[in-house]
């Protein structure tokens, strides 16, 4: 995006972004945009992602950003990561949690039959890890007063999205951790929020069964259309900047208006067509979701 305007919104700030994997990653775009807005950034991911992804390329694009290995589901890794961060970058003004993973979704296990070991892992990696990052950042005294903590969520935390399975539960937990931490961090002027982002084509996103159709549907239902990873990063930058000092404990929808929509005329007409076309109704499985009598 060489011809895009930059505002220097993060000039003089430092931060760490957990979770960039490749160019499609929301975290990748956030790190890049934060750097372009003047921040010094560090990048973190698990060992396999560092080995097989192209994170070095991102580090180079971010002024040779330090790359720190960390499995956010492990206390000792997170503790070590913040110690390393402190040595390489000093204390930071923002922390971005852009991490998510569900083995149950990957293996397409029905929600009714979740593998509980994997379920616990989903909750740990995708939800509790936010608590752990904040907790160890505080213990290691690497988070500056007036800082900003940001995580990524999805509307399935509040609404039922059938195929989002145990990730919906993890996102509810993530958003709850944000509310629980909010007042505890506020005395130091630190704020904590989630962005609830549109479906986005990334490694994690595309792993959800029927993702293409979800993406299409959500685009149709969003007055402004789905938001891209780049647009998400642009919004994220404002939340890491001093322009949003009194925004905390919020789940902020960045979804082209999707979360406030009820119905659209074309979608009502489509449903009507399906209701009156038995073959089509059978093909889309309408019977399975009709109200119980
Ligand atoms: N893609 C979407 O449709 C969408 C929509 C809303 C919210 N989100 C959220 O955005 C965030 C980023 O996901 P993404 O879509 O950019 O996908 P992504 O696959 O690019 O990023 C997910 C990252 O999590 C990392 N990760 C997995 N286990 C980890 C662990 N134990 N410790 C540290 N890191 C770990 C992965 O290595 C990967 O880099 C996630 O929280 C995701 O749920 C995504």
Automatic annotation (TrEMBL):
Its EC number is 1.3.1.9. It catalyses: a 2,3-saturated acyl-[ACP] + NAD(+) = a (2E)-enoyl-[ACP] + NADH + H(+). NAD(+) binds at residues 19, 25-26, 99, 171. GO terms for biological process: fatty acid biosynthetic process. Coiled coil: none annotated. Pathway: Lipid metabolism; fatty acid biosynthesis. The keyword rRNA processing does not apply. CDD domains: ENR_SDR. Pfam families: adh_short_C2. Belongs to the short-chain dehydrogenases/reductases (SDR) family. FabI subfamily. The active site is at 154 (proton acceptor), 164 (proton acceptor). One of its GO terms (molecular function) is enoyl-[acyl-carrier-protein] reductase (NADH) activity. Keywords: Fatty acid biosynthesis, Fatty acid metabolism, Lipid biosynthesis, Lipid metabolism, NAD, Oxidoreductase. It comes from Prosthecochloris marina. This is Enoyl-[acyl-carrier-protein] reductase [NADH]. The keyword S-adenosyl-L-methionine does not apply. Gene3D superfamilies: NAD(P)-binding Rossmann-like Domain. InterPro entries: Enoyl-ACP_Rdtase_NADH, NAD(P)-bd_dom_sf, SDR_fam. It comes from the Bacteria. PANTHER family: ENOYL-[ACYL-CARRIER-PROTEIN] REDUCTASE, ENOYL-[ACYL-CARRIER-PROTEIN] REDUCTASE [NADH], CHLOROPLASTIC.
